UniProtKB/TrEMBL annotation:
SUPFAM superfamilies in the cross-refs: Glyoxalase/Bleomycin resistance protein/Dihydroxybiphenyl dioxygenase (SSF54593)
Annotated VOC domain residues: 4-130
InterPro entries on file: Glyas_Bleomycin-R_OHBP_Dase (IPR029068), Glyas_Fos-R_dOase_dom (IPR004360), VOC_core (IPR037523)
UniProt-listed PANTHER family: PTHR39434, VOC DOMAIN-CONTAINING PROTEIN (PTHR39434:SF1)
Official protein name in the record: Glyoxalase
Amino acid sequence: MTTPLFHLAFPVHDLAAARQFYGGVMGCAEGRSSDHWIDFDFFGHQLVAHLSPDEAGKRITNPVDGDDVPVPHFGVILDMPAWHALADRLRAAGTRFVIEPHIRFAGQVGEQATLFFYDPSGNALEFKAFADMSQVFAKSFVSHQPRVSS
Protein backbone atom coordinates (compact mmCIF):
# COMPACT_ATOMS: atom_id res chain seq x y z
CA MET A 1 0.00 0.00 0.00
CA THR A 2 1.29 3.46 -0.84
CA THR A 3 1.42 6.17 1.80
CA PRO A 4 -1.52 8.59 1.44
CA LEU A 5 -0.69 12.14 0.43
CA PHE A 6 -1.85 15.04 2.55
CA HIS A 7 -3.90 17.84 0.95
CA LEU A 8 -4.27 21.29 2.52
CA ALA A 9 -6.12 24.27 1.07
CA PHE A 10 -5.44 27.58 2.80
CA PRO A 11 -6.20 31.29 2.28
CA VAL A 12 -3.77 33.83 0.83
CA HIS A 13 -4.17 37.55 0.25
CA ASP A 14 -2.18 37.62 -3.02
CA LEU A 15 -1.47 34.77 -5.45
CA ALA A 16 1.65 36.40 -6.92
CA ALA A 17 3.17 36.70 -3.42
CA ALA A 18 2.21 33.09 -2.68
CA ARG A 19 3.79 31.94 -5.95
CA GLN A 20 7.02 33.81 -5.20
CA PHE A 21 7.19 32.53 -1.62
CA TYR A 22 6.16 28.89 -2.04
CA GLY A 23 7.73 28.49 -5.48
CA GLY A 24 10.76 30.75 -5.02
CA VAL A 25 11.77 30.76 -1.35
CA MET A 26 10.42 27.32 -0.41
CA GLY A 27 11.29 25.66 -3.75
CA CYS A 28 7.88 24.01 -4.19
CA ALA A 29 7.07 22.97 -7.75
CA GLU A 30 3.87 24.51 -9.06
CA GLY A 31 1.07 22.31 -10.33
CA ARG A 32 -2.25 23.44 -11.74
CA SER A 33 -3.54 26.95 -11.12
CA SER A 34 -6.31 29.38 -11.96
CA ASP A 35 -7.02 33.04 -11.26
CA HIS A 36 -8.17 31.97 -7.78
CA TRP A 37 -5.80 29.21 -6.61
CA ILE A 38 -2.39 27.56 -7.10
CA ASP A 39 -1.37 23.94 -6.39
CA PHE A 40 2.12 23.38 -4.97
CA ASP A 41 4.13 20.21 -4.38
CA PHE A 42 4.90 20.76 -0.70
CA PHE A 43 7.45 18.06 0.17
CA GLY A 44 5.41 15.53 -1.78
CA HIS A 45 2.02 16.72 -0.52
CA GLN A 46 -0.60 18.87 -2.23
CA LEU A 47 -0.78 22.41 -0.89
CA VAL A 48 -3.36 24.72 -2.48
CA ALA A 49 -3.18 28.49 -2.00
CA HIS A 50 -6.69 29.94 -2.46
CA LEU A 51 -7.20 33.65 -2.99
CA SER A 52 -9.23 34.74 0.06
CA PRO A 53 -7.86 38.02 1.42
CA ASP A 54 -10.43 38.36 4.21
CA GLU A 55 -9.51 34.97 5.69
CA ALA A 56 -5.72 35.19 5.51
CA GLY A 57 -3.54 36.02 8.50
CA LYS A 58 -5.76 35.48 11.55
CA ARG A 59 -3.47 34.98 14.56
CA ILE A 60 -3.93 33.07 17.81
CA THR A 61 -1.17 31.49 19.91
CA ASN A 62 -0.85 28.71 22.47
CA PRO A 63 2.08 28.40 24.89
CA VAL A 64 4.31 25.37 24.23
CA ASP A 65 7.58 24.85 26.10
CA GLY A 66 8.06 28.60 26.64
CA ASP A 67 7.09 29.68 23.11
CA ASP A 68 3.89 31.34 21.85
CA VAL A 69 3.04 28.88 19.08
CA PRO A 70 0.84 30.22 16.25
CA VAL A 71 -2.47 28.40 15.74
CA PRO A 72 -3.35 27.28 13.17
CA HIS A 73 -0.09 26.32 11.49
CA PHE A 74 1.16 23.68 9.08
CA GLY A 75 4.44 22.26 7.89
CA VAL A 76 6.33 19.00 7.66
CA ILE A 77 8.65 16.87 9.74
CA LEU A 78 12.06 16.63 8.10
CA ASP A 79 15.18 14.70 8.97
CA MET A 80 17.79 16.72 10.90
CA PRO A 81 20.10 17.48 7.93
CA ALA A 82 17.15 18.66 5.80
CA TRP A 83 15.81 20.75 8.73
CA HIS A 84 19.18 22.47 9.18
CA ALA A 85 19.44 23.08 5.41
CA LEU A 86 15.94 24.62 5.37
CA ALA A 87 16.73 26.83 8.37
CA ASP A 88 19.90 28.02 6.60
CA ARG A 89 17.98 28.66 3.34
CA LEU A 90 15.29 30.63 5.19
CA ARG A 91 17.90 32.71 7.01
CA ALA A 92 19.68 33.42 3.70
CA ALA A 93 16.34 34.55 2.21
CA GLY A 94 15.89 37.02 5.09
CA THR A 95 12.97 35.17 6.66
CA ARG A 96 11.79 36.69 9.93
CA PHE A 97 11.20 33.82 12.33
CA VAL A 98 8.28 33.97 14.75
CA ILE A 99 10.06 31.27 16.75
CA GLU A 100 13.76 30.98 15.98
CA PRO A 101 15.19 27.57 15.09
CA HIS A 102 15.89 25.68 18.32
CA ILE A 103 15.43 22.41 20.19
CA ARG A 104 12.10 22.06 22.01
CA PHE A 105 11.50 19.66 24.92
CA ALA A 106 15.26 19.18 25.28
CA GLY A 107 16.00 15.97 27.18
CA GLN A 108 12.27 15.13 27.41
CA VAL A 109 9.82 12.88 25.60
CA GLY A 110 9.27 14.32 22.12
CA GLU A 111 12.53 16.30 21.89
CA GLN A 112 12.52 18.03 18.50
CA ALA A 113 14.06 20.78 16.43
CA THR A 114 11.50 23.41 15.47
CA LEU A 115 11.15 26.76 13.75
CA PHE A 116 8.15 28.95 12.90
CA PHE A 117 7.58 31.76 10.44
CA TYR A 118 4.70 33.40 8.56
CA ASP A 119 4.20 33.33 4.80
CA PRO A 120 3.39 36.65 3.05
CA SER A 121 -0.33 36.18 3.83
CA GLY A 122 0.26 35.62 7.54
CA ASN A 123 -0.16 31.83 7.49
CA ALA A 124 2.04 30.21 10.12
CA LEU A 125 4.38 27.39 9.10
CA GLU A 126 6.32 25.07 11.38
CA PHE A 127 9.10 22.73 10.36
CA LYS A 128 10.27 20.07 12.76
CA ALA A 129 12.91 17.36 12.96
CA PHE A 130 13.48 14.57 15.43
CA ALA A 131 16.86 12.98 16.12
CA ASP A 132 14.82 9.92 17.16
CA MET A 133 11.82 9.48 14.82
CA SER A 134 10.18 7.13 17.35
CA GLN A 135 9.48 10.28 19.37
CA VAL A 136 7.12 11.81 16.77
CA PHE A 137 4.04 10.29 18.46
CA ALA A 138 5.52 9.71 21.91
CA LYS A 139 3.06 10.48 24.68
CA SER A 140 3.61 13.03 27.41
CA PHE A 141 1.32 15.49 29.18
CA VAL A 142 1.68 19.13 28.14
CA SER A 143 -0.51 21.72 29.85
CA HIS A 144 -1.49 24.84 27.94
CA GLN A 145 -4.04 27.63 27.77
CA PRO A 146 -4.94 29.27 24.42
CA ARG A 147 -4.08 32.95 24.00
CA VAL A 148 -5.24 35.41 21.38
CA SER A 149 -2.61 37.90 20.18
CA SER A 150 -3.62 41.38 19.15
